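re: the backbone from monday

yeah here it is again, tokenized this time
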């Protein structure tokens, strides 16, 4: 295959889509991105980029931009609701993983990738919602909801958890599964909260109490991001996710976490734009590709944010797929090798996200006591080692 002649259609301009376009360009392959939303800044909450994700961004020369826009995470700091430290382990270990882990808003990460896409003159089209695909005579026709269409040689679905490309490939499922968790989350300005210590800003703070889990960390020089895990029986409806009263939401979060040690109470009090998310995952699909169509990122294997790996997995996928399209003899062998190399790792991570979410549930006094002792013993002794299989993954571009 002369990969340099390929025309790649990328559906989705989130994290994996722009990263794939940049790696394809590095491989000499042209692509065009189609994104359903209008171009907007400041959409979404905060996310963690693990050292493995930063290593991918370093291959694009974007690691410094991301480090400057986010907060380098030095520690994972586990506490109970009284503020007592249960375990504190190193998270970024540059001598081991080269790059650090970073907490950043999803909007900043998306902007850094999209700005680079534009700088490199890769076309990115907004307000283009994929509606249908036709594979015919060796080419692919993608139709959008504004009536327009495009033609290419291969199509990559980087269109996230609600992927239209996945629905085309696997119309009868499996569908994303609800993890039983909804998350309320938000940001506050660091200057709004004086009692927070620098060491806390530079850590992922995981607070476990009888009323459930509360997390926070720095997310850039002047922001703190926070998030919760609340166990529910049904996911929120679209209206419940977007159209709720901020004051009521804060009061209900306060009921859960208002008695947790500082700075939890203060963070909730100062937040004025609380977001709600349903947590779904995609555990295992029978196949990620068919013919000339492939899935990457959340479209193929959405993972609960509790694993801290969603964006990093999409970045790894992007780099690996571009490398294989450059190196392999045919698209078919690039796609099958990609699936064989990536599936075992990402499916294990999706399971890990489920497990970490379940560890954070509301508990009775006795269960909370056991949980605290488990964290004291296991995280302190095995925590750093336990992260190694996640972080110690490097794709050699050459
Ligand atoms: C608006 C938004 C906010 C998010 N906020 C958070 C957060 O706060 N914390 C967190 O951990 N994760 C968040 N995520 C998810 C996170 O970005 C992903 O888990 C992860 O980065 C994997 O990236 P991805 O590129 O596979 O998917 P995504 O980042 O979800 O990107 C998929 C893109 O495809 C687009 N798209 C969807 N359907 C179509 C279609 N039919 N046609 C064309 N384009 C389509 C979407 O608009 C989106 O831009 C958010 C995702 C989105 C879309």
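seq for it, each position gets an aa:
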């Amino acid at each position: 295959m002369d990969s340099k002649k390929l025309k790649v259609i990328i559906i989705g301009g989130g994290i994996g889509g722009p990263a794939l376009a940049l790696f394809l360009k590095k491989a000499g392959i042209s692509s065009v991105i189609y994104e359903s939303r209008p171009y907007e800044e400041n959409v979404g909450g905060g996310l963690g980029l693990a050292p493995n994700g930063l290593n991918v961004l370093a291959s694009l020369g974007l690691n410094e931009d991301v480090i400057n826009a986010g907060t380098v995470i030095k520690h994972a700091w586990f506490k109970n609701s009284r503020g007592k430290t249960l375990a504190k382990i190193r998270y970024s270990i540059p001598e081991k993983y080269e790059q650090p882990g970073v907490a950043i808003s999803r909007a900043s990460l998306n902007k850094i990738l999209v700005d680079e896409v534009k700088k490199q003159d890769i076309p990115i089209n907004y307000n283009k919602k994929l509606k249908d695909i036709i594979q015919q005579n060796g080419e692919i026709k993608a139709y959008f909801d504004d009536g327009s269409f495009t033609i290419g040689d291969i199509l990559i679905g980087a269109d996230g958890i609600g992927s239209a490309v996945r629905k085309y490939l696997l119309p009868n499922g499996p569908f994303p599964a609800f993890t039983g968790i909804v998350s309320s989350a938000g940001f506050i300005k660091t200057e709004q909260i004086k009692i927070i210590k620098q060491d806390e800003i530079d850590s992922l703070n995981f607070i476990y109490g009888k009323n459930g889990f509360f997390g926070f960390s720095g997310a850039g020089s002047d922001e703190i991001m926070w998030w919760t895990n609340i166990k529910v029986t049904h996911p929120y409806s679209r209206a419940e996710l977007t159209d709720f009263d901020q004051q009521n939401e804060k009061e209900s979060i306060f009921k859960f976490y208002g008695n947790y040690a500082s700075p939890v109470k203060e963070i909730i009090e100062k937040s004025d734009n609380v977001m709600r998310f349903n947590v779904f995952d995609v555990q295992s699909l029978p196949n990620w590709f068919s013919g000339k169509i492939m899935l990457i990122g959340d479209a193929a294997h959405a993972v609960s944010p509790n694993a801290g790996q969603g964006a990093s997995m999409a970045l790894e996928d992007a780099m690996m797929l571009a490398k294989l399209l450059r190196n392999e003899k045919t698209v078919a062998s690039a796609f099958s090798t990609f699936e064989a190399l990536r599936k075992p790792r990402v499916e294990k991570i999706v399971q890990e996200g489920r497990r970490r979410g379940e560890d954070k549930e509301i508990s009775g006094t006795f269960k909370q006591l056991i949980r605290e002792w488990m964290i004291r013993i296991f995280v302190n002794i095995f925590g750093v080692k336990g992260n190694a299989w996640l972080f110690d993954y490097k794709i050699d571009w050459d």
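The first strand starts at residue 7 and ends at 11. The chain has two domains: 3-70+106-176+281-360, 178-280+362-386.
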